């Protein structure tokens, strides 16, 4: 029986049979994982961005600065909790908790590993799974935005309200593209269960493409490359991470939706952002990167996908995607709001719709292996999409000189300072110069230039 379970992927029939103490243990593990991922995620981001910007980052509190995030959390906990006079007290209080609860709830349907033995009970390393687990992930992602919107509205201030409205438009724009990317996944896998999607991305097989037999990878990040690219861009927009952090936008909205928050409520919003980043990374690993299955070189070892080892591969993939989140923040500038909305509605959405139609047509063709069709069409389509997104749209124009800018300024605009930057002296400077000059001496040009 033990050998059978080691080689068997979890199915829906394996859930709902655990004793109460095992269920409580799984729930606590998911919660502790979310909290520890936040603490380590903040430290990881500050260290990586510091390395990219050639500075040390946190390195004083604890070994390698590991306790710096804990110290910052204690500092926020002891700060004064200020309640704006015009705020809606009930909504203002519960808004941060909504974001945190929704982000943590999404981890309940994410598989961390296969069937394992815990104190003699065979159970999957997953809190629960349902036949529509992908819809649960979408619902948690959509509900998490309500915390940001309600927090901005309940603050009773202008900038938080603008940040909440931006978050609403952002969610509507990028939720559609993310949903269509997931459609491609369960069209290919034939199920909306997360454990079933991981099982469908099994070990590589050999398929025939245009008369040639080649090894076919199982990860949907390769087979459904356009969906993977669009999905990852969409989750960056969903989690309000740079370069899509427009609901915060410090240079435009002070701090956006959480401008009026302080102390533990501000810490909850910060917690929800990092939990959402880790959760969406775990969802991406589940849907596109094979879940807890080991990558190719490690699969040569027969026991790579059995026992507790798959948790190591799963956490490694999650850390890799979190690094990409941090990499984007340290590299790309924030988009303008009109560019952000245009990119979601006029670029990602049409491309995703066309790809879904192509995928549906490929599945309708008979006598042709599904993986072979996806390799022959999906990979070139994904590479073409990447080239379209990152290819420069136009040749950069030479920057005009300062004199050309002065000559081309519109008529009636504000006056410009002198081009030689010799600003006339201030009244105080004139008074000091006059006091130093003899009374019967007229100040010369040298003194006027002080």
From TrEMBL:
Its main location: membrane. The chain crosses the membrane at residues 20-44, 90-112, 132-155, 176-198, 218-237, 266-288, 308-328, 340-362, 374-391. Pfam families: NADHdh. Its EC number is 7.1.1.-. Keywords: Cell membrane, Membrane, NAD, Oxidoreductase, Quinone, Translocase, Transmembrane, Transmembrane helix, Ubiquinone. It catalyses: a quinone + NADH + 5 H(+)(in) = a quinol + NAD(+) + 4 H(+)(out). One of its GO terms (cellular component) is plasma membrane. GO terms for biological process: aerobic respiration. It comes from the Bacteria. Residues 400-410 have a biased composition (Polar residues). GO terms for molecular function: NADH dehydrogenase activity; oxidoreductase activity, acting on NAD(P)H, quinone or similar compound as acceptor; quinone binding. It is found in: Cell membrane; Membrane. It is an enzyme of class 7 (translocase). It is a multi-pass membrane protein. Residues 396-450 are annotated as: Disordered. Belongs to the complex I subunit 1 family. NDH-1 is composed of 14 different subunits. Subunits NuoA, H, J, K, L, M, N constitute the membrane sector of the complex. NDH-1 shuttles electrons from NADH, via FMN and iron-sulfur (Fe-S) centers, to quinones in the respiratory chain. The immediate electron acceptor for the enzyme in this species is believed to be ubiquinone. Couples the redox reaction to proton translocation (for every two electrons transferred, four hydrogen ions are translocated across the cytoplasmic membrane), and thus conserves the redox energy in a proton gradient. This subunit may bind ubiquinone. This is NADH-quinone oxidoreductase subunit H. It comes from Micromonospora globbae. The lineage of its organism: Bacteria, Bacillati, Actinomycetota, Actinomycetes, Micromonosporales.
């Amino acid at each position: 029986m033990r050998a059978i379970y080691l080689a068997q992927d979890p199915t829906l029939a394996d859930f709902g049979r655990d004793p109460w103490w095992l269920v409580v243990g799984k729930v606590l593990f998911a919660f502790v994982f979310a909290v520890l991922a936040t603490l380590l995620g903040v430290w990881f981001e500050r260290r990586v961005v510091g390395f990219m910007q050639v500075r040390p980052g946190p390195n004083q509190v604890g070994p390698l600065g590991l306790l710096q995030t804990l110290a910052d959390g204690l500092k926020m906990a002891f700060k004064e909790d200020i309640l704006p006079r015009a705020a809606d007290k009930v909504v203002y209080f519960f808004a941060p908790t909504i974001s945190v609860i929704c982000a943590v709830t999404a981890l309940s349907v994410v598989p961390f590993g296969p069937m394992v033995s815990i104190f003699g009970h065979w159970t999957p390393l997953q809190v629960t799974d349902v036949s529509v687990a992908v819809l649960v992930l979408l619902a948690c992602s959509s509900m998490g935005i309500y915390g940001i919107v309600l927090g901005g509205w309940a603050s009773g201030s202008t900038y938080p309200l603008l940040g909440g409205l931006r978050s609403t438009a952002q969610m509507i724009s990028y939720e559609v593209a993310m949903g269509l990317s997931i459609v491609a996944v369960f069209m290919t896998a034939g199920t909306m269960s997360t454990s079933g999607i991981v099982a469908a991305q099994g070990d590589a097989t050999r398929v025939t493409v245009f008369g040639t037999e080649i090894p076919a990878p199982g990860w949907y990040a390769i087979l459904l490359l356009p969906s993977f690219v669009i999905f990852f861009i969409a989750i960056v927009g969903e989690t309000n991470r740079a370069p899509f952090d427009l609901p915060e936008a410090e240079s435009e909205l002070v701090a956006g939706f959480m401008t009026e928050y302080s102390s533990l409520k501000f810490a909850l919003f910060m917690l929800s952002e990092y939990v959402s980043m880790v959760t969406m990374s775990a969802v991406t690993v589940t849907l596109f990167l094979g879940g807890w299955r080991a990558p190719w070189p490690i699969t040569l070892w027969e026991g790579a996908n059995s026992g507790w080892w798959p948790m190591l591969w799963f956490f490694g993939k999650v850390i890799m995607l979190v690094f990409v989140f941090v990499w984007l923040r340290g590299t790309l500038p924030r988009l303008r709001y009109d560019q952000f909305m245009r990119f979601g509605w006029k670029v990602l959405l049409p491309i995703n719709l066309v790809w879904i139609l192509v995928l549906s047509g490929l599945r309708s063709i008979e006598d042709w292996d599904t993986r072979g069709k996806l390799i022959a069409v999906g990979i070139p389509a994904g590479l073409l999409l990447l080239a379209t997104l990152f290819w420069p749209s136009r040749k950069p124009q030479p920057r005009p000189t300062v004199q050309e800018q002065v000559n081309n300024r519109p008529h009636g605009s504000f006056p410009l300072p002198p081009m030689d930057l010799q600003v006339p002296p201030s009244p105080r400077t004139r008074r000091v110069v006059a006091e130093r000059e003899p009374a019967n001496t007229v100040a010369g040009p040298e003194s006027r230039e002080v």
